[in-house]
């Protein structure tokens, strides 16, 4: 890697659960406007890395620096501060939309903090003052712009739970983007998608990188996604980093091939 300042820097991250070392002295960085994939066999520690970055777990050891308007030391911050101040957004392996709310409402809930601020924590909102109405209109405009981008504008008023699975996955990513993050962390966004949906996901992630200029950290088992769209790949195995580099290089790395052998060698093919 050359001298571009990283967006997220993970240094000597270690996470222990009792006697189990889930992450063992892992360091890597993700650059701005790039997609950095974290791959590895089941149980390698990928989700644990995300849980440390987003404040779900407090690392046993290590420094996690997010560079924005200033440096945010994530390991010292609470989960809600990491979302609101450092502006790190994430999605989860399992879909976590509000299924009974409409598609549009799901994107408005994501902007709750911004709206609460504009509402003066309800006073301006209750009085219907312009400052709140302007913020509300901007939130709706942002939500509608995202629905258009993910091809769901016509479904704005449908309950989110009625959408096909692939559309729900895209809506989750749009919801995370409505928080206007600096770093977007996606945990297996392609899980359960058919090849057409997976190709649509690739397009969406590339546009988030290239058009919105957002840095993405991506955990993914689907190698067609990883190899096609990532700029940099970090490989974990049993909590350790065993390789990192451009996708084509990592794919040929003997240590990576060994880690995947016994599961399915094809898993790292293209
Ligand atoms: N809260 C926890 N308590 C105890 N052990 C945990 C906890 N969270 C994760 N682990 C363990 O840490 C290890 C790494 O798990 P992790 O979920 O990070 O792997 P992963 O690479 O994301 O796996 P997968 O691809 O299956 O999602 C596993 O052995 C897991 O059982």
Automatic annotation (TrEMBL):
Keywords: Amino-acid transport, ATP-binding, Nucleotide-binding, Transport
Transmembrane segments: none
InterPro entries: AAA+_ATPase, ABC_AA/LPS_Transport, ABC_transporter-like_ATP-bd, BCA_ABC_TP_C, P-loop_NTPase
Any one Gene Ontology cellular component term annotated for this protein: plasma membrane
Family annotation (SMART domains): AAA
CDD domains the record matches: ABC_Mj1267_LivG_branched (cd03219)
An MF annotation (GO) of this entry: L-isoleucine transmembrane transporter activity
Listed Gene3D superfamilies: P-loop containing nucleotide triphosphate hydrolases
Pfam families, sorted: ABC_tran (PF00005), BCA_ABC_TP_C (PF12399)
Domain of life: Bacteria
Keyword Coiled coil listed: no
GO biological process: D-alanine transmembrane transport; L-alanine transport; L-isoleucine import across plasma membrane; L-valine import across plasma membrane
Residues of the ABC transporter domain: 8-263
Stated family: Belongs to the ABC transporter superfamily.
Listed name of the protein: ABC transporter ATP-binding protein
Organism: Reyranella soli
Lineage of the organism: Bacteria, Pseudomonadati, Pseudomonadota, Alphaproteobacteria, Hyphomicrobiales
């Amino acid at each position: 890697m050359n001298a571009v300042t990283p967006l997220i820097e993970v240094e000597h991250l270690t996470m222990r659960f009792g006697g189990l070392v889930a992450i063992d002295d892992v360091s890597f960085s993700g650059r701005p406007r790039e997609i950095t994939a974290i791959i590895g066999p089941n149980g390698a520690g990928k989700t644990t890395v995300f849980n440390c970055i987003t404040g779900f777990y407090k690392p046993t050891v290590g420094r996690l620096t997010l560079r924005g308007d200033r440096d945010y030391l994530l390991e010292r911050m609470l989960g809600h501060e990491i979302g609101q101040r450092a502006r790190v957004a994430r999605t989860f392996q399992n879909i976590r939309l509000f299924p009974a709310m409409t598609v549009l409402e799901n994107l408005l809930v994501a902007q709750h903090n911004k709206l609460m601020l504009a509402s003066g924590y309800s006073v301006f909102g209750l009085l219907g003052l312009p400052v709140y109405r302007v913020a509300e209109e901007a939130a709706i405009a942002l939500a509608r712009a995202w629905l258009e981008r993910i091809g769901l504008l016509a479904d704005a008023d449908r309950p989110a739970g009625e959408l096909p699975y692939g559309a729900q996955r895209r809506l989750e990513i749009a919801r995370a983007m409505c928080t206007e993050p600096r770093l977007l962390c996606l945990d297996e966004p392609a899980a359960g998608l058919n090849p057409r949906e997976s190709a649509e996901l690739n397009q969406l992630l590339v546009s988030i990188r290239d058009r919105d200029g957002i840095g993405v950290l991506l955990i993914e088992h689907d190698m067609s996604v990883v190899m096609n769209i990532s700029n940099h790949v970090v490989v974990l195995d049993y909590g350790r980093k065993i390789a990192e580099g451009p996708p084509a290089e990592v794919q040929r790395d003997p240590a990576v091939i060994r880690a995947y052998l016994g599961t399915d060698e094809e898993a790292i093919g293209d």
